[in-house]
Every structure is written in structure tokens, then in C-alpha cells.
Design goal:
single chain, mainly alpha, 0% strand
């Protein structure tokens, strides 16, 4: 049998390269899509609590609880995801890193503040209604995520923003910081999804609104859970993509 000529032999690699290029999405359009998806998640959780769960208040009733899912999705998922992607923005790849470090830390701090307010809302609601705290898997997972988040922020602040940390310590801690950053986001998504499911089981009980009958609220909240999951997976995928990582540099500016 005759051997394939050069043109025929190059078809495979050429097609593979073309298909790879077709799958290569620029970061900024991807980031715009991700931002739209995050805003949609926040809008949907707010709509769910306003339309089906009675709205919002600070009187210790179930309307006080409604602040909990809104603040958790807004802080622990969407704003935290935005903080995680700061160093993937191409504009951050040149010049001093300090302004981007401050932005990254500020976004993470904002996410932490919203998360603490969300925890305060659910504890206030439980204590006002005489409901026990911290008995479900969702509550254990959520509080564990928040505690891990607080340790992550404090360690990152000490290692990367304070001037006393030596370069060898930063280099040693950096991969640990990156790993736990993705881990915390995945735990946040898992906590939010389990919390949505738990709330539906608690709320949809009467004969015409049982969860197993899949009423409109269940369809809406389940869709919200899927969108939160997709958001988290896409953020982790963006963090893992080699071509979107900030190039390492040994320049003094990059070590600032």
C-alpha cells in the first residue's frame, strides 16, 4: 500500500489544530458571559424569595431568613468568583501587582462581609423562632466553608499584602492559596445547592404544593441551583486554563 503523501499526512494534525482553535474562547467575552450568569443567579434568588417566600424584613420571621440565600449567593458564590478571576484579566499581566492584589483582597473581603451578614440572618431567624441551629448537613458544610474562607483570606492578607512576608514564604504558600481558592468556591456552590434543596423540602409540603409534584416554585429554584452549579464549574475551569494564567515574572514589580 502506498504511503500517504505530506499533504495527506498533515490532515490529521491540521484538523486537530483547527478544532482546538475553534474551541479557544477569548477570556473577556467568556468573562462577560460569566458576569451575566452571576447577575442572573442573584436576580433569580432574589425573585424566588420575593415572589414565593414573602419578601424581606428584619423582624425575625421567615422574611428575615430570606436574606440568607440572597446574601450567600451574592457573596460566597458570585463576588467570590469575581475575586478569584482578577488575576486572569490580561490587563493585570504587566506592571505592578499591588493594585490587583488590593482589588483581589477587597472583593474577597466584600464577599466575606456579605457571607457573615447571611449567617447572621439565619441565626437570628432560628433563634427568634426557637429552631435549633447547626443540625443539618447543609449547615455544617456552610459554616465549614465560611471558616475555611476566613482562614484563606487572613493567610492571603498576611502572605501577599503585608510587606514583612519573605519571597520564599510567598512562593511556598501560593499553590496552597490557589488550591484552597478553588476548593472554597466548590464548597460554596455545594452549600448553596444543598440549601436550596433543603428549603424546598421544608416549604413545599401541602397537598397542592408538594415538592414531588414539581410546582412552579420547585422548577424555578431547581433551575437556580443548576445555574449556580454551572457558574462555579465555569469559574474553576477558567482558573485551571493554562493560557489564562498570569505569566510568572521575576521582575521586582511582580514581587511587589
Amino acid at each position: 500500500m502506498a504511503a500517504p503523501n505530506d499533504e495527506e499526512g498533515a490532515v490529521g494534525p491540521r484538523c486537530h489544530h483547527r478544532s482546538t482553535a475553534m474551541l479557544d474562547v477569548p477570556f473577556l467575552p467568556f468573562c462577560a458571559f460569566l458576569g451575566t450568569l452571576g447577575l442572573l443567579c442573584v436576580a433569580m434568588v432574589g425573585t424566588w424569595c420575593q415572589h414565593w417566600r414573602g419578601g424581606f424584613s428584619l423582624d425575625g420571621s421567615s422574611r428575615t431568613f430570606n436574606w440568607h440565600p440572597v446574601l450567600m449567593v451574592m457573596g460566597l458564590v458570585v463576588l467570590y468568583g469575581a475575586a478569584a478571576l482578577v488575576y486572569r484579566i490580561p490587563y493585570t499581566w504587566s506592571g505592578p501587582k499591588l493594585p490587583w492584589k488590593v482589588l483581589h483582597g477587597s472583593l474577597a473581603l466584600g464577599a466575606f462581609v456579605l457571607t457573615v451578614l447571611g449567617l447572621a440572618a439565619v441565626f437570628y431567624f432560628h433563634n427568634s423562632q426557637g429552631t435549633p441551629n447547626m443540625y443539618s448537613l447543609h449547615s455544617w458544610m456552610g459554616l465549614g466553608t465560611v471558616l475555611l474562607f476566613s482562614c484563606q483570606w487572613a493567610a492571603g492578607f498576611g502572605a501577599f499584602l503585608l510587606p514583612w512576608a519573605p519571597s520564599w514564604l510567598r512562593a511556598l504558600y501560593k499553590p496552597i492559596h490557589v488550591f484552597f481558592g478553588s476548593t472554597i468556591l466548590l464548597l460554596s456552590v455545594a452549600s448553596c445547592v444543598s440549601g436550596i434543596n433543603e428549603k424546598l423540602f421544608f416549604s413545599l409540603k401541602n397537598g397542592t404544593m408538594q415538592y414531588k409534584l414539581l410546582p412552579a416554585e420547585a422548577v424555578f429554584a431547581n433551575t437556580l441551583g443548576l445555574l449556580i452549579l454551572i457558574f462555579g464549574v465555569l469559574v474553576v475551569a477558567a482558573l485551571a486554563r493554562p493560557s489564562w494564567k498570569r505569566p510568572d515574572s521575576d521582575s521586582p514589580d511582580s514581587r511587589q
